[in-house]
Amino acid sequence: MTGSARDLPEAPTGGTPVAAGPRTASGHDAAWPPFRAAVLRELEDFFASPAHRVARSPGFPLLWERIREQLAGGKLIRPRLTLIAWRSFAPVPRGGDAAAQVPDAACVRLAASFEMLHAALLVHDDVVDQDWRRRGRPTVGELFRRDALAAGVGEEEAEHAGSSAAVLAGDLLLAGALRLATTCTTDPGRSRAVADVVFEAVTASAAGELDDLLLSLHRFGAEHPDVQAILDMERLKTATYSFEAPLRAGALLAGAGTDDAERLARAGALLGVGYQVVDDVLGTFGDPEVTGKSVDADLRSGKATVLTAHGMQVPGVRRVLEDLASGAATVARAREAIADSGAREAALQLAAGLVGQARELLDGLALPQAQRAQLDVLCHHVLNRDS
């Protein structure tokens, strides 16, 4: 990865209040609706192409269709960041604002590659976490697990079949993402630069997924990771491919200089980690009806978060978390202890500090007003979302 996780600044101790509003009220982008539609068409065309099917395999058509269905329903955050970065540095066509133009085909394909990469990593993450639901519906693995049960195999064998099918599904999505990224432009210099960003993002995410798995093995023991170790993991696992890479790749595709692309990506890394810190808070204190996820899962599984890292520094909270790991305390009691320790407020303040640093980096870039407004709205969203 360009820049290691340790490049992330130490956890800030201050920052703007989380409730602060956006610095500008304008974040509307007229180019987004047609671009979004173009990205969805690109993905549909990919799945419909005969070149991406295996006619001689009886099982492949079902797997392929389930992969396509799993991809639907996303917020398309990564494609939108790709577009913002591309429009920040692409020359405005003669005859009017770029917003009025047909979406750039190269940028559309690159954006679609990031959405497919996101789907691939979610499928693999569900295998690692042994989750069987995603976006409110059964995962690819769960559907194949049910098929195996219906065929009369045992529970353990059915679970293995489901996990195996999910691994294959994630592999296919990953290959598709790389195919789209490496064919988005015929310009050899830009093609190589963009491909390198995507490949580095895949490597970083794999490393972060492994780190997350290994950190969770401690289950509130003496070696529980500190806040900085968790920030490093969250940058690798999610922030790099979700924020940093789309911004860097979109800028490079548009012809931005290396320094400008790096500065934009650096801001993205900070925003991405801030987003994950807020995600940790929502995963423990959010409203399940809004977030779509359980507020018990992270604590029950022993997941290391900035909340647990803060709580482990308080002797009374540490005892409760250790009791939770041994089965002597409930998740509700652990959540109450973490709340009483001030961990929630500390995490939100940490996120605000990260976003504040991102704003400073963005202020140093000569960005068009429209794209600056959209990034400003993103900064606000990171700190003020509820799902």
Protein model, in words:
The chain contains 16 helices and two strands. The chain is mostly helical. Strands 1-2 form a two-stranded antiparallel ribbon. Helix 3 crosses helix 8, helix 4 packs parallel to helix 7 and helix 9 runs antiparallel to helix 15. The longest helix has 29 residues. The radius of gyration is 21 Å and the shape is globular.
Topology:
Elements: H1 32-48, H2 60-71, H3 77-89, H4 105-129, E1 133-134, E2 137-138, H5 140-150, H6 155-182, H7 188-216, H8 227-254, H9 258-285, H10 288-291, H11 297-301, H12 306-311, H13 315-326, H14 331-340, H15 343-363, H16 369-384
Antiparallel strand pairs: 1-2
Helix pairs in contact: 1-4, 3-4, 3-8, 3-16, 4-6, 4-7, 4-8, 5-6, 7-8, 8-9, 9-15, 9-16, 13-14, 15-16
